[in-house]
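User: For my dataset I need records formatted as: sequence, then structure tokens, nothing else. Please produce one.
Assistant:
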Amino acid sequence: MSEELRTSAPETEFKRGITKFGHFLMEVTMLMGIAIFAINVYLQSPILDSCHFSLALAVRPTPQLLPEIISVNISHGAREMVENKVIVKRLASIENLGSMNLLCSDKTGTLTEG
């Protein structure tokens, strides 16, 4: 039992999707920062000011938007699950439950291992 508690849960499709979305945000942010810096330098703005401006625009949205997007999506799914009288142990599993095609349970309606 103690070894089972030490192991972490397998990575879900939701977590993989969030990681992929985070990498996409990072790429867009880097490209946006480089483009803004290049445009400012082309328009003959001071290089240090251009660097500060492009970094400020690149850094601002990423850490604040990603957790909010995830929280809103999971809470919306949790609310829909509560309306159907479903209790979910891990909130990240809501996304996986929503993407299922077939769900099997025993005669009491509970999900068990195996």
